Amino acid sequence: MRIDIITVVPGLLEGPFSHSILKRAEDKGLAKVKVHDLRDYGIGKQRQVDDYAFGGGAGMVMMVEPLAKCIETLKSQREYDEIIYMTPDGKTLDQQMANSLSLKGNLMILCGHYKGVDERIRQKYITQEISIGDFVLSGGELAAAVLADAVIRLIPGVLNDETSALTDSFQDGLLAPPIYTRPAEYDGMKVPEILLSGHNEKIANWRFEESVRRTKERRPDLLEGRDF
């Protein structure tokens, strides 16, 4: 997979892709993330990428010309399965969306900034608009990093144990069950005996029951229309 990210603040994305799972994915040749500075396509000596909004109001708007030039340049180099705009009014990111995007080959992500992008860019180029929640960030960079992490970790071979991603919360519409490691007892608190039994079927049943219980307690909305 290749992910191209367009931003006016490329420095914000240096850290997330230089460490941990995302770095290992690139080292293994399984994924590549390329960050593009929109100011390289800016207008004039000042490399302008934003201007005042028509109709007035506070805040600046990312201009059509630099964005279109950057997007067209990238499109001339490869075909993209999706061109994604990170925006609070997009569809909320969930595990099913991450699963679907992990099957793609080439993704382009546009990070909004200031008051957002000129609407004509959204109309002409964007194929998906994604939000990471009902709140506003200073820009789409951190949201793009969240999306990239959620997607890349699902690519086969990225995680050391490929079954790990399949047992994450939300993969089956439930929250993950409680997990434990050594020691078996700490400060009077013991690991459930079933997890020490070595009986795989009983352990699987316990984990499922605990997932349902935890989901009922913390996210009952996930169980609407489902009968356990």
Q: The biggest beta sheet, please?
A: 5 strands, parallel
Question: What percent of residues are in strands?
Answer: 15-25%
Radius of gyration: 22 Å
Q: How are strands sequenced across the largest beta sheet?
A: 2-1-6-5-7
Runs in which pLDDT lies below 50 for 5 or more consecutive residues are none
What's the N-to-C terminus distance?
A: 37 Å
| Percent range of helical residues | 25-40%
Using DSSP, what is the number of strands?
9
Q: Class by helix and strand content?
A: alpha/beta
Q: Give the SSE string.
A: EHEEEHEHEHEHEEH
Shape summary: elongated
Give the count of helical stretches.
Answer: 6
Mean pLDDT: 94
Short structural description:
This protein is α/β, with parallel strands linked by helices. The chain contains 6 helices and 9 strands, in the order βαβββαβαβαβαββα.
